[in-house]
Each structure stands twice: as C-alpha cells, then as structure tokens.
C-alpha cells in the first residue's frame, strides 16, 4: 500500500503508466500490480523512471497472468527492451516475489 502523497508526487508517471497499459490492453489486476511495483521502487533520477515504469508494467503483467512480451511493453512505454530485461527481476525480488526461472 502506498500513500496518497506518493500517488500525487508521481501522478504524471502514473498517467504514463496507465497510457502504456491501455496500449497493451492490460487487465485491471496487471495495472494495479504495475503501479504497486513502480511506487515501491521509484528511482530518484527522472532518466531512470521510464525504464522502471516499463519494467513494472512487464512484471505486473506476469504476476497477474496477463503477460506481454518485453518487446511489446518496450514499444508501449517508449524504452528499449534491454531497459526492461535488466530491471524486471530485481523489481519482483524487491517486492518479495520470486521471479520465474525459465
């Protein structure tokens, strides 16, 4: 659970997350999980926020069973696939979840 202050402070980023989630047609559960993952690990640098946003979308879609490819999420969030690939497992681990071992 995140504070209202966090949601207000990062509102522009959450709007971007929602826009990308719309493009991906993610479920409500996947969107909610992505928001939680993003707010749990928002980087200080604006430059890194978009990559964490994308990784949160990807990881949230996996957790919710609404998985999308890294490439599709990268396109929707306007980042490189490598940005997602290098961050999504750490996001899940930070949230106390175990990433899949494919």
Automatic annotation (TrEMBL):
SUPFAM superfamilies linked to this entry: Cyclin-like
Cross-referenced InterPro entries: Cyclin-like_sf (IPR036915), TFIIB_cyclin (IPR013150)
Origin: domain of life: Archaea
Molecular function (Gene Ontology), one example: TBP-class protein binding
Domain Transcription factor TFIIB cyclin-like: 18-93
Protein name: Cyclin
Source organism of this protein record: Natrinema ejinorense
Organism taxonomic ancestry: Archaea, Methanobacteriati, Methanobacteriota, Stenosarchaea group, Halobacteria
């Amino acid at each position: 659970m995140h504070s209202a202050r966090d949601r207000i402070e990062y509102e522009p980023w959450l709007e971007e997350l929602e826009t990308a989630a719309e493009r991906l047609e993610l479920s409500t559960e996947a969107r909610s999980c992505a928001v939680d993952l993003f707010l749990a690990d928002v980087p200080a640098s604006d430059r890194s926020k978009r990559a964490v946003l994308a990784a949160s979308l990807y990881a949230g879609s996996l957790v919710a069973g609404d998985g999308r490819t890294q490439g599709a999420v990268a396109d929707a969030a306007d980042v490189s696939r490598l940005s997602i690939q290098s961050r999504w497992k750490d996001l899940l681990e930070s949230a106390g979840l175990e990433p899949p071992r494919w």
